[in-house]
Amino acid sequence: MNDLAIIELYFARSEEAIKETDRKYGKLCHNIAYNILHNREDSEECVNDTYLGVWNAIPPTRPNSLMAFVCRITRNLSLKRLQAITRQKRSPEVLVSFEELAEVLSDESIASGVDDGEIARIISDFLRKEKEDSRNVFIRKYYFFDSISDIAARYSFSESKVKNMLHRTRMKLKVYLIKEGVEL
Amino acid sequence: MKTPRIVTAVGQIDDELISGAACDAVVMKRNPWLKWGAIAACLAIIAGAIFVLPMLRGDEPGEIPDTGTTNDPGIVSPPNNNYTPIIFDATASPEQLSGSSLEFIVGTSTSIEVGVDAVPPKFEFSEGIAVKAKVVKNYPDQYYKLDVSSSYRPEAYRLIQMETLEVISGNNVPQYFLYLIPDYVYVDMSVYDSLLISMSQIGLENYVLRNGTQNKVESFELLIFADRQDNPELGNIIAFSDGIFDESLWQNYTWLYGYQFGRYYLDHPEHGDLVVARGDSESTVISAIKKQYEDWYGDNYQARSVKTLNFTTQAAKDAIEYVKPFANGVFSQWYSPYSQNGELIFRRYINGCQTEETIRIDLLTEEVTYSEVRYTKEDMEQMENISAHLAQMATEYAQQLPTPPHTDPAGKKLLCLNLYAWYVKVDGKMYGVIKTAWRYADKDDWYIQYYDDSYVLYDMTESTATDISRDDLVKIVGTRNVYMGEYGIGIEMPMC
Description:
The complex is a heterodimer of chains A (184) and B (496). Chain A is mainly alpha-helical and 184 residues long. In chain A, 73% of the residues lie in helices and 0% in strands. Chain A has 9 helices and no strands. Chain A has helices at residues 3-11, 16-37, 40-57, 66-84, 92-104, 116-129, 132-142, 148-155, 159-179. In chain A, helix 3 (40-57) packs across helix 4 (66-84) and helix 8 (148-155) packs across helix 9 (159-179). Chain A is globular, with a radius of gyration of 18 Å. The model of chain A has no long low-confidence stretch (mean pLDDT 86). By secondary structure, chain B is of the alpha+beta class. In chain B, the strands form 5 sheets. Chain B has a 7-stranded mixed β-sheet with strand order 11-7-6-4-8-12-13, with helices on one face. In chain B, strands 1, 19, 20, 21, 22 and 23 form a 6-stranded mixed β-sheet that branches. A 4-stranded mixed β-sheet of chain B has the order 2-10-9-5, with no helix packed on it. In chain B, 45% of the residues are buried. The model of chain B is unreliable at 25-127, 148-152, 200-206 and 227-233 (pLDDT under 50).
């Protein structure tokens, strides 16, 4: 079903809306949650919470992209849940992603007065200027938290190429953030 | 464990980037013209928050503010006004106008979606009609769609009458059409010899619009190409002067952010995907667009078609007569391609306010379905004009902003205050409802928002007006247009 039609179902307060969202984006949401949490049960709960969040948000919200909307909510909920998980149970791969991004821009190095929305806008600007494959590899890694091997398989790249691409993109992003005045 | 801020920030990157990475196959073929549109659409929404809201409150509706210029010729700075907008959904009274045409509807014959497991189209709005056109007339007034619930914030539009010079993609496109364009991105395009326009926003239609400048409701005889989800996709307009690509259209201040990307790709064509390059002729760009459609969709694509309404059954003809604008109340029209055969949906508006009365016509079987609730002439005679109450309330709010009942505004910024009004008929009794809706965000956040609302119920039989809780309201008039989510919590709501 078309996203617009699903959104109309939400506006009509039809529970079919959740079923259709699950049919279309359930797998994607589960992947995001599992990539972050590495636990089926927690992931399942996050995805269910996502649907509840979407149900409560639409209406009045009318998202421009339903897919991005549900992905965003799943990612946020999963990251929140990750904070409550004990250190031993955390996915090492996610923690590595955190560290890699923190090397690009640590909290301490962010210029005062710059909020997360501004950083997001500048990162979006940067990514648009990147080549398509570099951009998507970056997003697969740091938005969807895909593993290196999954990304390599997805794009038919070697794992070392993916690592190199990510390294190069992170370095370029760091320079861009400094140039834009985000990083001190 | 604390999540690094950059991780949070990456979670807020623009939708089309997420969609791009989520939907890609191993190797993607892009639709450059339309990708540019996606960027512009997204950014235009942001620009809307900056530009249109002050204008909605301005003394001269529709006037483009005098903003001064930057050092970059052709680019004008955004206005610095920082009003909190108050947006009125319905303040109009219908005015009898003669003549309306239901001759055309814009339909779809595309078949891109292939099963529930298919990867969603990369840019769903990219299916559409593409034409070469020129401006015939710019309408000076602002217009609003008649739909109380569909919009995060009611959007002001302008109308441009266009003449089709050449159809690049699509079927049965009329020679003249009206182009509905968000007011805050409106520019005078009559200065260009021709425009290549992607009508990707086709999908929803209204023949009846509220004229916000003159405070009346109008119907239009020409086909209106409306947008979808209120997303302007201005990257999908390419201007030409003397037969050569003219990028000055993209330099208008309403395109300020988008043009930065456009200019980058024009400066570095080797990095970009645009179908157009500096110095290109119309024919070159048209060829590129056609090739792009072919590359992008291949055999799966059938261009959208403008269908001619030609009902044969008496029931359908009667329904069309019944919903004729202004002849029997005011109806707005909406084409829904999502039912099995596609259907036309009409809704009655009275005094510019929505009712629950709808009439649906199945486009294949011509079966007509009238809603259970219908309004009679007697109903309308005894009705109060709640839009007058709404206007009064709006005046009061302009003097003194109301306090939200469920949300502590401390530490939050008020994004906008909306007023909505609608009619309800229950068990033969008639009511009017006015809703006041607040939308807040944390002071330093643009992502989490807080929604709050309050309601006033007008009982037309008893001639009373009562402040009423949501729970009590729902028991009387049901849940239509009533927010049923939890109050006082932040709702994750991307602005873009």
